[in-house]
User: What shape does this take?
Amino acid sequence: MAQAQFKLRMPEALRASLEEAARPRGVSVNAEIVQRLERSFAEEQGFGGPEMRRLAYLMIVAFARAGQLRAAGKTNWIDDRDCYRAGMFGAIDALLIGLPDATAEEVMAEIEGLKGRLLSRIAREEQNK
Assistant: This one.
């Protein structure tokens, strides 16, 4: 594979972070940069493109923030049912807020539809026990 040279300027703190990450793996800073760039493109493609990756990050951040707020300092908050539930609703809330061109009535209809689907799923799970 042909290699191309690329001159790059970066903040000193970022360079130091790259050196710290490369050192234990025994690779050069250049190899660390290339691997991280390749991984970011693969991740983006895996999510279905940049918009889907941003949406996934939105859900993850909303989940984590809401769960951590509920946890109030607890460790392993993700294993706590109430904290997990808070995170779940935080992610759903973020998605509903971002619903393109939606009126309040349409958002309410989406919530009712979601409620119906969840209740149906719960009923099916109970029947399968």
